[in-house]
Amino acid sequence: xxxxxxxxxxxxxxxxxxxxxGNLVLAHDxxxxxxxxxxxxxxxxxxxPPNGAVSPPTGTLAPKSSRVGHDYAPTLHLGxxxxxxxxxxxxxxxxxxxxxxxxxxxxxxELDLSWATAFQRAVAExxxxxxxxxxxxxxxxxxxxxxxxxxxxVGSFCATNRFxxxxxxxxxxxxxxxxxxxxSGVGVKRRLLALEGTAA
Length: 200
Hints:
By secondary structure, the protein is α/β, with parallel strands linked by helices. It contains 5 helices and 7 strands; from the N terminus they run ββββαβαβααβα. It is globular.
């Protein structure tokens, strides 16, 4: 069993890494400002994620890809479906269009949230419904997800988001300012919001 890892670059933005299995997105990370020469070409490959393979009984893949910076692993689902390479090619093309300024929607993209707690799933789903050009505060997102008062937990979720841009944590701001954006920095957050027509 193997997932498809697609590494790609978007000039002026950086380097992305997308993990898919069939039409299911297992993870997507983006190194904003990453060195495009650091990848040995773009494209898809079928492989076990680095550092191991599927481990029964959970089906969880071993942690970390070669680029993804979070200490988590995508969860592998068994079954058929659309070819992963087709899904990867379509999504990386859409990501390139998005970063060029096109109004690309992501609500049709199937994400693997099987690893998530009920809270994390609720936050991800609520955030996916925040439209382009709008922002919510951490507290507002917590309430939208059905967990009023859980603003800090929403911040923790955003800090470890497995689905860069697909779950748009850049649209979540602090009550008194723009808020953080992990290792990518506030400058990248402002740039993404400006791309979507939001001043923050």
